[in-house]
Structure formats: C-alpha cells, structure tokens
Amino acid sequence: MSRIALYPGSFDPITLGHVDIVQRGLQVFDEVRVAIAVNSRKTPTFADQERQAMIEETFADHPRVSCVTFSGLLVNYCREQKIHTVLRGLRAVSDFEYEFQLASMNRRLTEDVDTVFMMTSEEHFYVSSSLIREIAINGGDASSFVPPPVARRLAKRFG
Ligand code: COA
C-alpha cells in the first residue's frame, strides 16, 4: 500500500520553506500531495490556478509530488480521497499553538486522519508567504526565499 501524505496550506505563494517540508516528506512517504485550500472568503494575491501552476512547475521533476486544490473541511477532503495522513511544517514554537489546535480539532472531527509534523530547516525558519509578498510589493528581491517559478511571477507582477 502506498503511503500518501496530504500537505495542505494556502501557498500564496509557495516558499522554499514549504519546498523543504515537501522534500522531507518524500523521505518518509511514497507520495506527497500538496493541497491548496481554496477559501472563497479570502482574496489571495495569486489565483488558485496560478498557485497550483507554481507548485507543479516547482516539482516538475518529482513524480512523487502532485498538487490539488480543495474547498471545505480538510478532514472531509481526506476522507473522500481516502488519505489518512496530513503533513504540516513547524517553524518555531509560535507555530505550535495554532498547529496543535488545528490538529486536535481535525482529530475530533475524524479519528481516521492523523497529522505528522516536520521541522522546517533553520535557514527557512523566518520565511512566510506574507513576508515574501510584502518584500515583492515594495520592490525588494525575494528570489532567494522562493523557487524559480515563483520568483519569475513575482518579478512579472511587481517588478
Ligand atoms: N515554510 C515557510 N512558511 C510556512 C511554512 C514553511 N514550512 N509553513 C507555514 N508557513 C507559513 C505560510 O507561508 C503562511 O504564511 P502567511 O501567514 O504569512 O501567509 C503561514 O505559515 C500559514 O500558512 P499555511 O501553512 O498555508 O496555513 P494556513 O493557516 O494558511 O492554512 C489550512 C491552513 C489550509 C491547512 C487550514 O486552514 C485548513 O485546513 N483549511 C480548510 C478548512 C478546515 O478544515 N479548517 C479547519 C477546521 S478545524
């Protein structure tokens, strides 16, 4: 049986911190499925299809990585797809409280899904999508924090 981990998030846009978690996940799971949460109440900087394209281009050489979008509850999507493991990254202690709450609530909603946490590498501890957006919007160079498909789009959009 192949071991699949679903890695959910907003990925607006995907950063090297997220890439690091996917790569770590590949050492433990047969497949990592990056799942973009589509939230109709939020207006993302990058449209769903663009976020998906950036992720697919980033992992074009990784056949064990795929990317999907989902809406509604994460646990419902996992159930539909028969996935039992959610992968999340932890950057600092400050992430823990939110992640603990999310994982605990998901467990209350279904016993079928467990969350596995991996620690982001030190060099990406301080990276976040909103900081990347802020740097780019203000004319800074964020290219060392994101994969090339994201850097290209940031330059096109804000450069
Ligand atoms: N490296 C770099 N940055 C990281 C990171 C890593 N390894 N892990 C998280 N981040 C950053 C993101 O860039 C993002 O930064 P930002 O806030 O500056 O934009 C932030 O941490 C959190 O983002 P993300 O990991 O994408 O989580 P999220 O809070 O946006 O989304 C979902 C969490 C999508 C998993 C959650 O909201 C969800 O499951 N939604 C579906 C509905 C649902 O089931 N809700 C739960 C009910 S109990």
Helix/strand order, N-terminal first: EHEHEHEHEHH
Which regions are unreliable across 5 or more consecutive residues at pLDDT < 50? none
What portion of residues is helical?
Answer: 40-55%
Total strands: the figure is 5
Number of helices: 6
- Widest sheet: strand order? 3-2-1-4-5
Largest sheet: 5 strands, parallel
Protein structure class: alpha/beta
- Give the end-to-end Cα distance, rounded to a whole number of Å: 46 Å
Task: Provide the residue-averaged pLDDT.
Answer: 96
Which small compounds were modeled alongside the protein? coenzyme A
Determine Rg (CA atoms, Å). 15 Å
Q: Strand portion, in percent? A: 15-25%
Shape, principal axes of CA atoms: globular
